[in-house]
Structure formats: structure tokens, C-alpha cells
Design a protein that fits this description.
Layout (H helix, E strand, L loop, with lengths): L1 E10 L2 E6 L5 E5 L6 H13 L18 E10 L2 E10 L2 E6 L2 E2 L12 E4 L1 H5 L5 H15 L1 H23 L5 H38 L5 E6 L7 H18 L10 E6 L2 E2 H4 L2 H23 L4 E5 L7 H14 L3 E5 L14 E6 L2 E4 L3
Parallel strand pairs: 3-13, 3-14, 8-12, 12-13
Antiparallel strand pairs: 1-2, 1-4, 4-5, 5-6, 6-7, 9-10, 10-11, 14-15
């Protein structure tokens, strides 16, 4: 998959920008707060319709503007497509080759992206919500059917919580039963995906670190079952407490991921370097899975990677990605760590106060 061209209008701090990345390596450099991450975010939006940092459309529109446009030309499976996202007020409209998109799943397979940023490394130490968010977002990238089951579960959960807050018991049983059915489907998706990532993670970690450390990822379910009737029983047993606290206290929305190194918690026993390498390996395992799913490489977006990896590991990573013919876009405040890997087919841009300037290779 390739991003061939990007156009932005009134997107965050970027008033207007035209961007044509290299098919291999593109460097976006500039001081912090100039708009580099905003540009990466807009690329990811072309593939999912949603920003990875916020769920609010208003936050994506430049201050003082009423609307924004993200437009891109992409190449997937040998087919060029034009994707346009129009953001206005609290709504978004998406079209592919001038045809309106009714469901986000229609974007599936047009531009798969994997993002690695300092925020991802932080998920080792942060709460379960950040790890669930990673799991569900990466799962959706490779499985269009997951999104429907995901939304069904969380819509049902929202309705059940509304009933708990109102104290209405007449419909509670029906929504609890639906929640159990939807919850089991959600857990099945997650469990299968984690099993696949587990097979890919160790290989990538060993390649990055060149060490014999064993790493693993485990899916920790709040309710360990794959049977709707068993989840329903737990929810019914929990109902009195749910009514007291006016929220659903058990279920897949409480699930977590456990990261392990040498059979011990990465959070408690892994060094900072090990944690960074683990998360990078996890992202590359996600990339491997997308490649297996679509038969071609996704686009890799590396946000401020120089703050996460030393120069040697950066060089090793980028040489490896070049061999795989992955399109890579990197943001950085300093081009120096990347000079050794810049080649004739690379491109370099400067971002300053939302203005993008092409500087060659």
C-alpha cells in the first residue's frame, strides 16, 4: 500500500498543504508544536476515517474555520483510489472516487497504517484503557467485521448503563442478555488476534534486540468465558451492585493486555529500553499481520522515533524496512540521526507553523 499524494485544508494548525511522500522514506522535521504529528494523523485518518488522538471532529478543524478537508490519493492492490474526508461542525463525510461512503468498513484495505509514537511506549505503564484502545484499533485495521461487533457491544453497554442510571428494571434483562451475546463475540475477536500477534512478537523483538530474552503478550479477560450464557450469569450476579453504582462493572470493557519479558511483568521488571523495544516489536508484529491480511505492506508512521531509539537501532530498523519495501514516514526535530539512511529516493520536508516546505532528499 502506498500514499501517493495528500492535501490538507484547515486541518488543525495546517491552513493548506500539498504533500507527496517518497515510496520509501520521507522525513518531516521541525521544532515541536509545528504540525508534524498533525500531518501523520491526517494520513492515518484516510484509512480509518478517525483520528488516533481524539474522537471529536471539532478538534480537527483549524481554529476559526468552519470546515476542513483531508484528501489523499492511495494505491492498494494495484488500484488507485481518491479518498476525501470533509469535516464540518461535528460531522464527517467520506467519499472514495467521488462516491459517498456509508460505513467506515468501506475504507478497509484502502490504506492500512501502523503508528509508533512516544505515547505508545507509555501504554506499558498506563491503565488498561490504553492497552484496550491499542488492541481494538489494530484489530480493526486488519478485520473489517470487528468494527460492527465492537460498536454493537459498546452501544448495548451504553444503553444498559442508561437503564441502570434511571433505575428502570423492566428492560434491563433484555439489554443484559444482548450485552452477553455481543460481549462474547468481542472477546473472541480479541483472543484470536492476540494469539496471532503472540506468534509474531517474539521474532520481531529478537531481531530488534539481538538477545535471547523471551517476550509475550497475554489477553486478560475480566470474565474468562467464550459462552454467552456464562457471561450472562456473571452479569446477572453483578446486577445488584451495578444498580448501586449505576454502571456495568463486569465485562469485556474491563479487559486488559499483559506484557511479559522472561515470564515477568514488563511494567514491573523491564527496563525503559526493554519497554521501548517491546512496544516497537509489537507495532512491527502488527505490521506483519497486516501484510499477511492484505498481501502487501502497510504504511508505517514513526512519530518522534529519535526520542525512543538510539541511532544504531534507528539505522537497523530503517534498513530492515527498506529491504521489505515499506513506505515509511518519520517526524523528528533533528535530521542528523537519519542522514546515514537518507538515499536518492528519500524525501525531506520541513514543517514550520503549519507550513510545509520540500527540501529534497
Amino acid at each position: 500500500m502506498l500514499l501517493q499524494r495528500l492535501r490538507l485544508e484547515q486541518y488543525r494548525n495546517i491552513a493548506s498543504a500539498q504533500f507527496e511522500p517518497s515510496r520509501s522514506l520521507t522525513i518531516l522535521h521541525g521544532l515541536n508544536g509545528q504540525g508534524k504529528t498533525n500531518l501523520l494523523e491526517s494520513i492515518a485518518m484516510l484509512g480509518t476515517g478517525r483520528a488516533f488522538r481524539t474522537g471529536k471532529v471539532q478538534d480537527l478543524i483549524q481554529h476559526g474555520s468552519s470546515s476542513s478537508i483531508v484528501s489523499g490519493q492511495v494505491l492498494a492492490s494495484g488500484i488507485q483510489s481518491s479518498i476525501i474526508l470533509q469535516l464540518q461542525g461535528s460531522t464527517r463525510r467520506i467519499s472514495i472516487d467521488a462516491k459517498p461512503v456509508q460505513r467506515a468498513a468501506e475504507l478497509h484495505g484502502k490504506l492500512a497504517t501502523v503508528i509508533f509514537s512516544p505515547d505508545d511506549t507509555a501504554m506499558v505503564k498506563l491503565g488498561p484503557e490504553t492497552r484496550r484502545r491499542f488492541l481494538d484499533r489494530s484489530l480493526y485495521s486488519s478485520n473489517a467485521g470487528f468494527l460492527q461487533d465492537y460498536h454493537h457491544y459498546y452501544r448495548t453497554l451504553k444503553q444498559r448503563n442508561a437503564l441502570l442510571k434511571s433505575g428502570r428494571l423492566d428492560e434491563l434483562g433484555l439489554w443484559t442478555e444482548q450485552l452477553a451475546q455481543a460481549g462474547v463475540r468481542l472477546m473472541q475477536h480479541r483472543r484470536q488476534y492476540v494469539d496471532t500477534l503472540q506468534q509474531l512478537l517474539q521474532r520481531q523483538y529478537a531481531r530488534i534486540c539481538n538477545q535471547a530474552e523471551q517476550v509475550a503478550i497475554q489477553y486478560i479477560t475480566d470474565v474468562a468465558t467464550d459462552r454467552p450464557e456464562e457471561l450472562l450469569q456473571v452479569l446477572m450476579e453483578q446486577q445488584e451492585q451495578d444498580l448501586r453504582y449505576r454502571t456495568t462493572g463486569r465485562g469485556p470493557h474491563r479487559d486488559d493486555l499483559l506484557f511479559l519479558i522472561n515470564d515477568r511483568s514488563l511494567k514491573g521488571f523491564g527496563s525503559q529500553g526493554q519497554q521501548r523495544s517491546f512496544v516497537l516489536a509489537l507495532k512491527l508484529a502488527e505490521m506483519d499481520h497486516l501484510q499477511q491480511s492484505f498481501g502487501e505492506e502497510p504504511v508505517l508512521l514513526l512519530d518522534d522515533i529519535a526520542s525512543e531509539l538510539d541511532r544504531e537501532r534507528i539505522n537497523n530498523l530503517l534498513n530492515y524496512l527498506r529491504q521489505r519495501e515499506v513506505q515509511v514516514l518519520i517526524t523528528t526535530t533533528d535530521v542528523t540521526p537519519f542522514r546515514a539512511v537518507l538515499q536518492q529516493d528519500s524525501r525531506r520536508y520541513r514543517m514550520e507553523a503549519g507550513n510545509l516546505t520540500y527540501e529534497g532528499n
